[in-house]
Amino acid sequence: MDAKISTQKSIGTKHSILDKTLEIIRGKWRLHIIYQIGTEVRRYGELRRMIPQVSEKVLIQELKSLMNLGVIEKKIYNEVPPRVEYALTSKGRQVLPILLKLTTVGEVFLK
Amino acid sequence: MDAKISTQKSIGTKHSILDKTLEIIRGKWRLHIIYQIGTEVRRYGELRRMIPQVSEKVLIQELKSLMNLGVIEKKIYNEVPPRVEYALTSKGRQVLPILLKLTTVGEVFLK
């Protein structure tokens, strides 16, 4: 493989890694949701209360996207009424420290 | 201040820090641009070549937004033809390591 092709391949790989990162954090709510679930397992109603600015429709849609991406998982307990809880997956827990560190960026630019 | 108000204030502050963070990294291109400028000062033409998927219109608009946010700065050299270079500001350089670490998130989820 000559150097030029190798460099192009390397730039391509970097782009797809970055694109995957952006998929996980994109939009106004995904990081908010990850932060709230990150510290402990959350019931749906708790998430509603903790992120009151988001509409019910968008919250449900973003929870679904984060599940499809493998960042969070839903556990349904066979109780009456049924209990539904959200938790980070093991990959989600693995990247949580990096995502938490991101708030430093906001802090620096709010100064 | 009672405990409830204090908690609500703390959640409010966290939200605005996170919102500022999201402003800086939002969209498909800002992180791409920051990464390319991060390693060294870049001329406009170089950025065009390094991120070929972005349209000229959007690249110019995103460079302007990043300048307004104080992440990058433009230097115009009085040469013929004029030389225009983009570099990170000192705040931009300060947060670059955190933003670079973000690619780990994509790596974990591409596995």
From TrEMBL, chains A, B:
Superkingdom of origin organism: Bacteria
Keywords recorded for this protein, A-Z: DNA-binding, Transcription, Transcription regulation
Entry-linked InterPro entries: HTH_HxlR (IPR002577), WH-like_DNA-bd_sf (IPR036388), WH_DNA-bd_sf (IPR036390)
Sequence ranges assigned to domain HTH hxlR-type in this UniProt record: 15-111
Claim: Lyase is one of the keywords in the record: no
Pfam families: HxlR
GO molecular function (one): DNA binding
Coiled coil: none
Gene3D superfamilies: Winged helix-like DNA-binding domain superfamily/Winged helix DNA-binding domain
Protein known as: Helix-turn-helix transcriptional regulator
Organism, scientific name: Spirosoma validum
